[in-house]
Amino acid sequence: MSFNKVFILGLPRTGTTSICSALLNEGLSVAHTAYTDKTFEDAQVLADTPIYCDYQALDEHYPNSKFVVLTRQPEAWLPSIKQLLLRMFVNVTRDDGGFNPIIKRSFTSIFSPFTKENIEKDDFLLQCYNKHLNEIKSHFNGREADVIYVEVSNDADYSRLCDFLKIKSQHSAFPHLNIGGKVTAWSDIKDKNKIASTKNGRVTKLPYPV
User: Fold this and answer.
1) How many Å separate Cα 19 from the centre of its chain?
2) When comparing pLDDT for 183 and 91, which is higher?
């Protein structure tokens, strides 16, 4: 690649698995979530937690990188993200275990205050979505060569993404994965370019300051 890394800035349930699978199919090394310094070293493409949360630090630490912002229509995103957050709530908020600290930090910072009452409200979730998107637009203002906005349900955006990343592709659309509330499609994918998010299930200090 003529650039450093590709960072996927979509929030959960905006199509991160679909775009990661697509870029795997294009021969890139991809990590869907990244919790170790080794993951950041090995992957060309990184997505989901903590990427959508840490893009400003990543932009500084990995100069000459490309950023792909995933968008999704509210009527499709809201019921999906609500279902996910309610399912994850206990493991995000518990003090005696649950998810790793990077996951907890990512979710509680984007969806703050992270309470059951809030995540059951469409207005709250949409406010979080728009705040995240507006902050990204402000950060990359005037840097159109570095960032692209993509919706994986729009087949035309696949060719736009390939042009942006200078990929000569034989494909014409994103695969549509994790439909109907499923979140396991990435773990089912077998590919030599799929980069593990952890080492033996353990996280490490990330290679950039947050």
Assistant:
1) 9
2) 91
| The pair of three-digit structure tokens given for residue 103, joined into one six-digit string | 């996951």
DSSP codes of every residue in 121-188: -HHHHHHHHHHHHHHHHHHTTT-TTTEEEE-TT-THHHHHHHHHHT---S--S----SGGG---HHHH
Q: What is the pLDDT of residue 3?
A: 81
Q: What is the mean pLDDT of residues 11-30?
A: 95
Would you state the torsion angle of the CA atoms of residues 25, 31, 32, 37, taken in this order, to the nearest 10 degrees?
180
- Nearest Cα to 56, choosing from 131, 136, 128? 136
Interatomic CA distance for residues 151 and 64, integer angstroms = 23
Each residue's pLDDT tens digit, 72-87: 999 999 999 999 999 9
Q: Which residues pair with 67 in a beta bridge?
A: 7, 147
Cα dihedral across residues 82, 74, 152, 51: positive or negative = negative
pLDDT confidence of residue 64: 97
Q: What span, in angstroms and rounded, lies between the C-alpha atoms of 50 and 67?
A: 14
- In this structure, what DSSP letter does residue 195 have? P
